Amino acid sequence: TLTAGVIAVQGDVSEHATAIERAARAHGEDAEIHEIRHSGTVPECDALLLPGGESTTISRLLRDEGIAAEIVDHVDAGKPMLATCAGLIVASTDPQDDRVDELDLLDVTVERNAFGRQKDSFEAPLDVAGLDEPFPAVFIRAPVIDAVGEGVAVLAEWDGRPVAVKQGPVVGTSFHPELTEDSRLHDLAFFESVEA
Ligand code: GLN
């Protein structure tokens, strides 16, 4: 059994839970999902999901609830985490926005809502390192990754910009991999040790 925690202070949760269960099943495992709203549960989890939503709100609630430090400990222990969209912004070292209290777990500079200026939302077939077929990526007011640090592997690019990255046990995507039936990104983040 994979014990997975989906951070549920704000943002979409059930779609991620479904995707994690599907990914686990593909490996002949079942998943026990904890929806995390308070401190105390993260230490029990083998894997974490930091979903999209509103990054300023999520980061504030993570600090207020004492969850932020637990997430940092989880990653320091080498356990996997998938951070999507606003989750990527919160996990970054540089969100370029003072209202985001970043976790410093992914050495990337992000620009909030930067893909959203042209189009609020779009879907694109993405070539992702480690996946045989393109991934249907849904972007919703998505952040652009402006710069990546040395320890960061770029797993996918769109329009010449990184949109999926990996550093140690953390995978970050600017898109929403939970919004299609395709759970290969959850699989890749939690079960595979892919390098770009
Ligand atoms: N625009 C949001 C933010 O900057 C992220 C969008 C999302 O998670 N879909 O926090």
Automatic annotation (TrEMBL):
Superkingdom field: Archaea
Single Gene Ontology MF annotation: glutaminase activity
Gene Ontology biological process terms, A to Z: L-glutamine catabolic process; pyridoxal phosphate biosynthetic process; pyridoxine metabolic process
Record EC number: 4.3.3.6, 3.5.1.2
A Pfam family this chain is assigned to: SNO
CDD domains in the cross-refs: GATase1_PB
Binding site for L-glutamine: 53-55, 112, 140-141
Coiled-coil regions listed: none
Reactions performed catalytically: L-glutamine + H2O = L-glutamate + NH4(+); aldehydo-D-ribose 5-phosphate + D-glyceraldehyde 3-phosphate + L-glutamine = pyridoxal 5'-phosphate + L-glutamate + phosphate + 3 H2O + H(+)
Pathway membership: Cofactor biosynthesis; pyridoxal 5'-phosphate biosynthesis
Gene Ontology annotations for the cellular component aspect, listed alphabetically: cytosol; glutaminase complex
Active site annotation, chain numbering: 85 (nucleophile), 176 (charge relay system), 178 (charge relay system)
UniProt keyword list: Glutamine amidotransferase, Hydrolase, Lyase, Pyridoxal phosphate, Transferase
Function: Catalyzes the hydrolysis of glutamine to glutamate and ammonia as part of the biosynthesis of pyridoxal 5'-phosphate. The resulting ammonia molecule is channeled to the active site of PdxS.
HAMAP family: PdxT
Record text on subunit structure and interactions: In the presence of PdxS, forms a dodecamer of heterodimers. Only shows activity in the heterodimer.
Family: Belongs to the glutaminase PdxT/SNO family.
Name the record gives this protein: Pyridoxal 5'-phosphate synthase subunit PdxT
Annotated source species: Halomicrobium mukohataei (strain ATCC 700874 / DSM 12286 / JCM 9738 / NCIMB 13541) (Haloarcula mukohataei)
Gene of this entry: pdxT
